[in-house]
């Protein structure tokens, strides 16, 4: 089986969130199962790593293209270099035009390098256009929705010439969406099968509340048997409290106390239990609910927040950091994220919707109990006898769940039992990878695994 993944980021070379983690971990496990795996993503100016240039040429409708290659963990990574990506950072306001150029370059690059996969697997809207071109070229395709809210929309009259698609593709049954080009819809329409990153989210997005205007199409895909949910895994080598170099390593519940002491010393916190948050600062993540609940939360908890995003939420948390029980660090900080997961006692995720979520899995692996809203992948991963779940969407609902967690914390026997159950859960990529390979096999008719992997 030869598979090509296409996405906008891949850890550790480029990353802004969970998509980059998935495109690092899933292909690596597939490679161990005997699949010939290639990952294609943009060659950003800020790329971490130095690819070896393997091709340079002109692509019709795109212009000059160069391609770099790195190999790691049995996976071949190809980075497509375009003028549109020669600037700092990953994402910008003109991303629809930029990723249309990337999307048009993907197939010609693969053909120039004699890479003809049995299946092309696109991830999120940035991969919608290359998936459409692959389907129109007769390739078998799968498409994964990581977050339906972000769709890659632009006025169709302006964007039409960016795509290289035939005229018939621009109708309501194609990539048109209320007068816009919609690259997420391109992936949905042209994929042989669509997955999303948890079974609950796959059901939720067929409703008007979560369907982001595409629920009618997603209902149709469900009825046709072309939409399913496969829960994401967790890179358990990268996130392992026994070997994590950013913390005081520990096994079981005993070692957490030293990491809590480190976090208290770092931020000058008192001896109240610590509620951690590592999140993008956005309303989707319920960070406004967290901020409004802080007057109640600080009565029971020290609250440590790491994240960047919305300027208004950032300003509000900066103001709250004057409170001795609140610590806030803006932006991304990998080392601090590890220290929060290890040092906090509980972990808040009040998301309005959560396609899958990795933070709650990491928290449980580190013995930090999640307080989560009942939505998406949080439902599928946080058992009632480990974490604390709430159904509402108000600051009071979050505060009540955190109060429940605080009462449980005082019963050290119950708390320890919850911690041990959480740390024993298996969130490895092995099971999700095999589910994807079974899907690939069904779509292509080709054995997905090597004979050695089947034994």
Please give a structural write-up.
This protein has 455 residues and is an alpha/beta fold. The protein has two domains: 2-233 and 429-454, Rossmann fold (3-Layer(aba) Sandwich); 256-424, Glycogen Phosphorylase B (Rossmann fold). Helix content is 39%, strand content 20%. It is built from 17 helices and 18 strands. The strands form three sheets. A nine-stranded mixed sheet has the order 3-4-5-2-1-6-7-11-12, with helices on both faces. The chain has a six-stranded parallel sheet with strand order 15-14-13-16-17-18, with helices on both faces. Helix 3 runs parallel beside helix 5, helix 8 (256-267) packs across helix 11 and helix 9 (287-297) packs across helix 14. Residues 451-455 have low confidence and may be disordered.
State the CATH topology of the largest domain.
Rossmann fold
Give the class-level CATH name of the largest domain: Alpha Beta
Based on helices, strands and strand pairing, what is the structural class?
Answer: alpha/beta
Round the mean pLDDT to the nearest integer and report it. Answer: 95
Strand content: 15-25%
Strands across the major sheet, in which order?
Answer: 3-4-5-2-1-6-7-11-12
* Beta strands, count: 18
Low-confidence segments:
451-455
Q: What is the CATH architecture annotation of the largest domain?
A: 3-Layer(aba) Sandwich
Number of domains: 2
Tell me the major beta sheet.
9 strands, mixed
CATH homologous superfamily classification of the largest domain: Glycogen Phosphorylase B
Helix content: 25-40%
The CA-CA distance between the termini, in Å, is: 17 Å
Shape: globular
Number of continuous helical runs: 17
Rg is: 22 Å
């Amino acid at each position: 089986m030869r598979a090509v993944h296409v996405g906008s980021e891949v850890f550790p070379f480029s990353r802004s969130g969970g998509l980059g983690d998935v495109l690092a971990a899933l292909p690596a496990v597939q490679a161990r199962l005997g699949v010939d795996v290639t990952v294609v993503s943009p060659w950003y100016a800020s790329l971490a790593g130095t690819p070896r240039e393997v091709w340079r040429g002109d692509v019709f409708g795109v212009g000059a293209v160069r391609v770099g290659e790195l190999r790691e963990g049995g996976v071949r990574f190809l980075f497509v270099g375009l003028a549109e990506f020669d600037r700092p950072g990953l994402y910008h306001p003109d991303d629809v035009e930029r990723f249309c150029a990337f999307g048009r370059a993907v197939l010609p690059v693969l053909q120039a390098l004699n890479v003809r996969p049995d299946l092309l697997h696109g991830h999120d809207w940035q991969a919608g256009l290359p998936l459409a071109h692959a389907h129109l070229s007769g390739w078998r395709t799968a498409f994964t929705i990581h977050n339906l809210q972000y769709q890659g929309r632009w006025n169709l009259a302006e964007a039409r010439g960016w795509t290289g698609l035939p005229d018939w593709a621009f109708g309501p049954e194609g990539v048109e969406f209320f007068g816009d080009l919609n690259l997420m819809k391109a992936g949905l329409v042209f994929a042989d099968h669509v997955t999303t990153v948890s079974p609950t989210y796959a059901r939720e997005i067929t409703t008007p509340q979560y369907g982001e205007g595409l629920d009618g199409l997603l209902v149709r895909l469900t009825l046709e048997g072309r939409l399913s949910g496969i829960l994401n895994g967790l890179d358990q080598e990268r996130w392992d409290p026994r070997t994590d170099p950013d913390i005081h390593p520990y096994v079981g519940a005993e070692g957490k106390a030293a990491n809590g002491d480190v976090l208290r010393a770092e931020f000058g916190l008192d001896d109240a239990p610590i509620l951690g948050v590592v999140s993008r600062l956005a309303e989707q993540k319920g960070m406004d609910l967290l901020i409004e609940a802080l007057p109640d939360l600080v009565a029971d908890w020290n609250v440590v927040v790491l994240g960047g995003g919305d300027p208004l939420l950032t300003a509000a948390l900066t103001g709250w950091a004057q409170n001795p029980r609140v610590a806030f660090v803006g932006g991304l900080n990998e080392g601090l994220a590890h220290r929060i997961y290890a040092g906090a006692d509980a972990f808040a995720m009040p998301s309005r919707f959560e396609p899958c979520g990795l933070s709650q899995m990491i928290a449980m692996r580190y013995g930090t109990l999640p307080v989560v809203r009942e939505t998406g992948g949080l439902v599928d991963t946080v058992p009632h006898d480990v974490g604390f779940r709430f159904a509402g969407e108000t600051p009071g609902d979050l505060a009540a769940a955190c109060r429940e967690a605080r009462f449980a914390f005082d019963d050290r026997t119950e708390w320890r039992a919850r911690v041990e159950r959480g740390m024993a859960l298996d969130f490895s990529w092995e099971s999700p990878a095999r589910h994807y390979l079974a899907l690939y096999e069904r779509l292509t008719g080709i054995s997905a695994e090597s004979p050695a992997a089947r034994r």
